[in-house]
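Final paragraph of the annual report: two paired records, presented back to back.
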Amino acid sequence: MKYIFFTLIFLHGAIHLMGFAKAFKLAQIEQLITDISKISGLAWLIVFILFLVTGIAFLAKTQWWYWLAIVTVIISTVLILLVWKDAKFGIIPNILILFVSLFSLSFHAFNNKVANEISTIMKQADTSKISIITKEQLNDLPYPVAKWLKTSGMVGKEKINTVWLSQKIRMKMKPGQKDWNEAIAEQYFSVENPAFIWKVKMNMPPFIKITGRDKFINGKGEMLIKMFSILNIVNEKGEKMDEGTLQRFLAEIVWFPSAALSQYISWEAIDSLSAKATMNYKGTTGSGTFYFNEQGDFVKFSTLRYKSNEADAQRYEWIVTVKEHSIKNGIKIPTQIEVTWVLENGNWTWLDLKITDVRYNTSIEID
């Protein structure tokens, strides 16, 4: 696809050489009836050069090619309207190039925004003091939670302070949807100062590209979803979003079990196979119930969570169910889960997520 776009840029730019050739009488251009001054001819040549440089910069993946493309398209359009009005069809490729340029500009702006947010939470992480989890530290936990940390292999391992996850995802955007939309995602966690950034890319028919970001920082949550990285589909924040993203963080500590020992989480025993956790951080509070099997593996999380951010939004049961466990970096964690809303009209399983890679307590390169 990128070579097709480069070809479009090059051929469209090459057409501008006709104006240069006409002005300097290098060729007989029948399509150009109006006389063109040498100054205008030089302008046509410059536009060709600009398009050529734009195409090369695009192939080289430089982060400034779209700015050059936008400027070049504007100059080209002005020349067409003022000098070669019979070539108004040339505005069509200009529009296509402009659209791709604006999309790329917005995409990079979105990625830079997310990268800055990731840097913020990574800087909050205290990686200077790496301690080892001991059996004695589990004494104050409810029996099933302590057994889970032992079963996971957390005892004797370093306390987890930072996490990076890559995920392969299938999503359903609304209840009743039959087909899954596939996506890929990355998630970054800071544990000592609880925070996460989750960014996702998804293609939807017929050629619609969706980018999204969930975040929880300093006790506050925010969801941002964009079409073509330009148009906001969802842009939500507020107390309900704060609570919901905190509950999400709480559910996802199963990917870094040592977080169960964090001071911002309190535990309440229910029975030998379940316990309730309550998380309180910087004025935001949420809770949920963790369920385990006889072997000590985590198998389910359940909470009452706001489904939307409207003023009259209601809480519904939100369930995370484990489909598969794997050992990653010596720790047994859920590597495939599904997430379900329990609604009045029935259950809506909207997310199927598989962990493809995980890294703990390592320097993380941000794309």
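The closing record of the year follows.
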Amino acid sequence: MHPSLFNQTPVELAAMLEGLGEPSYRGTQILEWLWQKRSTSIDEMSNLPVGLRDHLKESFSLRSLTHVRTQGSHDSTRKFLFRLQDGCHVECVLIPASPALYGERADRRTLCVSSQVGCAYGCKFCASGLDGFSRNLTADEIAGQVLLAEELSGEKVNNIVFMGMGEPLANLSQLLKALELITAPWGLGIGARRLTVSTAGLVPQIRKLADHPQQIRLAISLHGASDEVRDRIMPINRKWPLSELFKALRYWTKRKKQTITLEYILIDDVNADLAQATLLAQRAKSLHAKVNLIPYNTVEGLPWKRPDDPQCRAFRDALVKSGVPATLRLEKGHDIDAACGQLRLKEEKKIRTDVD
């Protein structure tokens, strides 16, 4: 299985071309064919010598993902399922803006991308890890989700959140390379401030990412405002409890200008009571963070339930009354298996059943 040409940076292309005795400007031509012209065939690269095109065909593949299925919702949220070259599956979700409800720009289109096949961190409410962890995605497999989502939707993605399948900071080296592919003028050209990396709380990697020069944004999958609640649903908290996590977040705030977002999935009879809202408000105010509340999307095979809408609104209102900026998204994708990993899990179960 050849590496993808989309995974090559200008430095890597320059080294390859020098070894072939080709001029360095060929690298610029190749990148233009890939990222601006969105080429699907090396034969299309008509301004490259035939010998170079033959070498590229022998040494590289192009796209690392193929489209399997799209699920769309009544509110225009769409989930895409992609197959990788090794037969694994990943998914991403395209979320339109809701300016009337959330004050967002009308042209805002957010893509939630995956960074791993499955997940090893075992959050109790999440579908991503139900079938175990398979592997990290390569940088081109991460950035390729953006390319395919734009082609399938016919819309330009202008906001990216790394909140899909997997733990992005457990795949830090490929994440950083994906950030280069996505933000570089020769790549997708999306500004770093429009990228948000989400983590369940890998403390050492948060510090490393804080030292990364780009002004990307950070979101924390918190989901519990006390160690007691977080221990129950997020095993990572036993290794890095809230005290250690918030030390790392204070380090982040010293290095970056952007406001941290605390992601909080509301789960009935687990973390959606007003006592947790009070604790969450205290923690958010200590970082000058904002809170994004997400009612739980039911996952087949898991016991957790979604609170009713009045309870979700009461939780949000408690935060707002405490002076914490908080958003509550009630409708996005609940009808399309939008919880991370559900569509991939169903597809791979279907494949195993067909084989058996």
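Residues 139-153 form the longest helix (15 residues). This concludes the annual technical report; the extension proposal builds directly on these records.
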